[in-house]
Amino acid sequence: MQTIVSAKNLVKRYKELIALDHFSMRIEEGEMLGLLGPNGSGKTTAINCLLSLLSTDKGEVDIFGQPMTPASYSIKQEIGVVPQQVAVFDELTVYENIDYFCGLYIADKVRRKRLVAEALDFVELGDFRKFLPGKLSGGLLRRLNIACGIAHKPKLIILDEPTVAVDPQSRAHVLDGITRLNREGATVIYTSQYMEEVEQICTRIIIMDKGRCIAEGTSEQLKHMIKAGETIRIELVSISQQDIEDIKAIPHVYSVVFADGLLTIQCSEGSHNLIRVLDYLQKKEVPFGMVDSKLPTLNDVFLEITGRELRDGGESE
Question: Could you give the count of Cα atoms lying within 13 Å of 26 in the half-sphere of its Cβ?
Answer without folding.
Answer: 8
